[in-house]
Amino acid sequence: MNQPAIPQDVARSADYKDCAPGHRFLLYFPVWDHNFARQDNAKHTALQQVASSLPRSSRDLCDALVRRQNALFQGHPHGLRVEARSTAPFATGLGNEHPVENGFAFLTPYGLPYLAGSGVKGVLRRAAEELALDPGAYPANQRPTLLDVWWLFGFEAPNDECLKDPSWQRALEALAQRADLDDFIRQGLADQPGDRERYTGTVDNRATFLNRFWKSKDLPRRIHHRGALAFWDVFPEAKGMVVEIMTPHYKEYYFNGQPPHDAGQPNPVPFLAVPDGTDFTFHVTCAPQSLPESLQTGWKPLMEAVFAHAFDWLGFGAKTAVGYGVLEDRNLASPLAPETASEASLRAQRITWEAARLEYTPNDQTLLAQHEGNTARVVGKEASIQVLGDPAELERLKKQQRKKTITRRVEVEAKGNQFTLCRVFPAEG
Prior knowledge:
Elements: H1 8-13, H2 21-26, H3 43-51, H4 56-74, E1 79-86, E2 106-107, E3 112-113, H5 117-133, H6 146-153, H7 160-164, H8 166-174, H9 181-188, H10 193-197, H11 203-215, E4 229-231, E5 242-246, H12 251-256, E6 269-273, E7 279-286, H13 293-296, H14 299-314, E8 327-329, H15 341-346, E9 349-361, E10 366-371, E11 374-379, H16 381-388, H17 391-400, E12 406-415, E13 418-424
Antiparallel strand pairs: 1-7, 1-8, 2-3, 4-7, 5-6, 9-10, 9-12, 10-11, 12-13
């Protein structure tokens, strides 16, 4: 029998039903034999145990973290909140070390999956640069310029390959026409008085300075500008996790130096992911006093366009090139495609039903909640346990419903006239 790499007396007395997935994955991962040798054939089963170990305590903790973020955000005078939902599985931190060779990013000490604010910033910066370099992507007043990207995200010198790209060359040449380039250069060279004095701020001088600037190997590295935006960590509001499989081919070619061929055996590799349909809430705060006047009031529409582009074309987290990490905006309409009334009516929303009638049908393993003529359901025993929060709750419901009608407060996801049961709140008293 496989066990975690912990003392045997601890393993015998441990109860993992309330263990957060990050702790189960990182501290108590059951993939070792009694000699503490890793059993590779136990990876998938062990990951399934982690994926099913999102107890009610972890979900309540995630809800509390999100509520705390929302409360802090309400007190910030300059911020943007974007609510999104995943349309594909989400994975992050796969490069972290772990016995299964694919890690996952869990927030210590809570053991909850999260997307670091630095990762959010990286994706959105990439999206902003793509918009700045593609004049046809959005109207001029709805997309950032390259200088806007530097003001908002901080300065990052383009590499030699970028400088050879015609789109980068056009964007850099346009910088000479921006009057707020003067303030940006002077702020960025605040600790370089010699370079700052050579910059006078006229259009001709800007062009001359920029030409010398991009040819220099050292001058771009001497500009230091933080950027006005701050990006908060994001906590996926998942009801559970899933195990995904990647199947790398040509193992003999990559590891044994043999010629690649189609007769080789693929190597299935399991890894953890957050399932699609999970809610994500992004918080961005701004320090407008460090921005030019044009951006102090105009940064929000630009960032809405940046988010829309990131949702449509980039994705968040790992393996985005093969379709993971795709999100859709739940509330903010795209700057180019305002939401119609019919689309708004079909958008999924979370609502609470008070005193819904609860019933579990063992034959088809379906948990039902009925309220004012509407029915929400979730199919499958494991899914029902996740919604109830505890296997004991399911057994208790099966016994009690034989004697009386069970009513509970429930949370459902409504999309049009379709309802999915998401959570059953504990009985009061």
